[in-house]
Amino acid sequence: MGKQRSLLRSLTTGFAGRKHCCKGNKRHVILKGNRILVIKIERNSFHYCLDCALKFIATARKDLTALETELQATP
Ligand SMILES: [Zn+2]
User: Fold this and answer.
1) Confidence band, pLDDT 50/70/90 cuts, at residue 1
2) Which residues are found with C-beta within 5 Å of the ion, ligand 1?
3) Residue 47 has pLDDT above 80, yes or no
4) Which candidate, 1, 14, 52, 63, has a CA 20 to 30 Å from the CA of 35?
5) Which position has the higher pLDDT, 72 or 74?
6) Which of 46, 17, 21, 51 is nearest to 34 (CA)?
7) How far apart, in whole angstroms, are the C-alpha atoms of residue 16 and residue 13?
8) Are the C-beta atoms of 35 and 50 separated by less than 8 Å?
9) Residue 49 and residue 24 in contact, taking contact as beta carbons nearer than 8 Å
């Protein structure tokens, strides 16, 4: 039996080690110690501020529900 795949393996959270800009919006400033969402894509990792992270999660939740509904729909 195969191991269950995680859809969210590339996502983690962390704390900013230094002051920098959010990858989602250059005007969002992430201060040292702020909570961040880290998205790893291949060898790169992108940091997003809390506001962007929560928006992404809300959108993803809707997308997952849509996928679930589609998979369960009878043809
Ligand atoms: Zn942001």
Assistant:
1) low
2) 22, 24-25, 28, 49, 52
3) yes
4) 63
5) 72
6) 17
7) 10
8) yes
9) yes
Residue 21 Cα to ligand 1 midpoint, Å, equals 8
Q: What is the pLDDT of residue 46?
A: 96
CB of 72 closer than 8 Å to CB of 46: no
The answer for 43, left when phi > 0, alpha when psi is -120 to 50, beta otherwise, is alpha
Q: How far away, in angstroms, is 8 Cα from ligand 1 center?
A: 19
The type of residue at 3 is: K
pLDDT at 59: 97
The mean per-residue pLDDT over the stretch 26-51 comes to 96
